[in-house]
Amino acid sequence: MVTNDATILRIKHEILYEVAKLAWEGNLEDGRDEIPYVISPGPQAQYRCCVYKEREIVRQRIRLAEGKCPTDRNTNNVVQVINAACEECPIASYTVTDNCRKCMGKACQNSCPFGAISIGNTKAHIDPDKCKECGKCAQACPYNAIAHLERPCKKVCPVDAITYDEYGICVIDEKKCIQCGACIHSCPFGAIGSKTFMVDVIRLINAGKKVVAMLAPATEGQFGPDITFASWRTALKKLGFADMIEVGLGGDMTAAAEAQEWAEAYKEGKKMTTSCCPAFVNMIKQHFPELLGNMSTTVSPMCAVSRMLKAKDPEVITVFIGPCIAKKSETLDLNIQGNADYAMTYGEIRAMMRAKNVILEPEENTSQEASVFGKRFGNGGGVTAAVLECLKETGENTEIKVARCNGAAECKKALLLMKVGRLPEDFIEGMACVGGCVGGPSKHKAELEAKKSRDKLIAEADQREVHENLKHYDMESFSMHRH
Amino acid sequence: MRVSICIGSACHLKGSREVIQKLQKLVTEHGLDGTVDLNGDFCSGNCRRGVCVTVDGTLFSVKPETTEEFFEKEILGPLKEQGLA
Fold first, then answer.
1. A284 has a pLDDT exceeding 90
2. What pLDDT score does B50 carry?
3. Residue A5 above 80 pLDDT?
């Protein structure tokens, strides 16, 4: 996968690995101070201005790996700025490059409504005090000589939560941040990360607790055509997990409950949204609170599976594993009872496995927990397809119109329309990541890279219906609604 | 009112889940679902004082068996004073 942050991903993984190794051995307290010297041995710096800065960045990353804030500034956000790593990218946004021929046409100057452009000795110049960033000059220049410089983190944030302090260091406006994690992998300096529960999970396994892993529906295909859920179960059991379960099963459960809700709402003429994507839920809570009454009260697939496991055994500790950062924030919402205790990313679980020399090996699936519809919850449009299937199975009207929002920008647009009463569709499927969960910030492979393997693995599953599948589970033992 | 309970491994082993379940029950029983916002917290390093519970920024040390007393004194009490419960 080609990313902006390939080198950083490697360093991040090395740090998670070192932390995991010490945590498994029970030596984290004594050993954590050594890690910066392992990663950046010196005397020469590898990437930054000096080895001392590199080691400070490593120290901040270790804090994040342990679930702490990178500095002593304690905040509740899952997504955090590693301020030592932020390189204070230039904020000035329109800049004239060397492509400028200082031509006679001067379309840039003529197009600027604010008189911000003057012609210097060698090229045009934009006065930052006058420039209003309308971009007309960049469109007008026949040489493409005017570049739009934007901080990569700010550019990708769908809710405009990225700001700066007086030194130009990135600051996240936590009232706006929906924990989607888009900024994390956009930063070419790796200056944004998320707190992890990795050390907690390792300590609970070491303490002999019954910890069950719940794997995201997006998992199939992420690690190649031969890595099945059976491969994961074997590897996770070697690691010390008591068992592993497919969250796709929760997809079936959520679809069935949501179909009932939608059928009723449709008869009443009430518009509704899905509630399974945690970043989308955060977007409604923080940016469209007036629409909370339109949000489905059905719990997420993660929560459904966790409740089912806890109804069977109240002692069990449930850990979600997937490509999602916002799931970490969902586990922190304790107004929802019985949800997953912890959420982790593929990168974090891989570091835990590597630290114990456990690898994923090809293995044939011998059982299937989710229907194909539940499995496809991780794809954009998958939730709608599953809900429509449930409506069909129960003989309800399937002629409903759904706005399938692919990515946070589309979610925002649809919610805005819903807010002013102009949404043409009856329902909104909100997926904060483009492509759905398979496009999540902590994916192992890009959506298209994984597609072939994913399609192959899902094609191997049988064609059972959603309700037929759920007959095998005690759906009366727990509630499918938030309260 | 924002109430945060540490869900780190040290607090978990000291009974944070029981504290959470009791608080969830007490909040619902007193009809405070929209008033009290229950949150989980990552470990803040105060493990010796666990189970760590923060009420609007102030740290308290709670045990499963002292949860009811804590709820009366630090959550219900102040809310009654503010006329919210």
1. yes
2. 80
3. no
pLDDT in tens, A355-370: 999 999 999 999 999 9
Q: With an 8 Å Cβ cutoff, are B40 and A333 in contact?
A: yes
pLDDT tens figures, A93-116? 899 999 999 999 999 999 999 999
Q: Which CATH number fits domain A94-148: 3.40.50.720, 3.40.1350.10, 3.20.20.140, 3.30.70.20?
A: 3.30.70.20
* pLDDT at A92 > cutoff 80: no
**Least trusted range by pLDDT, from A1-15, A213-227, A400-414:** A1-15
| Residues of chain A contacting residue B7, judged by C-beta atoms under 8 Å apart | 200, 331-332, 341-342
| 3-state SS class at B60 | strand
Q: How far is A203 from chain B (nearest CA, A)?
A: 6
Whether residue A66 and residue B21 make contact (CB cut-off 8 A), yes or no, is: no
B21 contacts on A by Cβ (under 8 Å)? 337
CATH 3.30.70.20 positions along chain A are 6-89+152-195, 94-148
Q: For the domain covering B2-81, report its CATH number.
A: 3.40.30.10
Residue B85 in this model has a pLDDT that exceeds 80: no
pLDDT tens, position by position, A189-205: 999 999 999 999 999 99
Domain ranges of chain B: 2-81
Q: What is the pLDDT of residue A176?
A: 98
- Who among B9, B10, B38 is closest to A335 (CB)? B38
A341 touches chain B (CB under 8 A): yes
**Chain A contact set for B23 (CB, 8 A):** 334
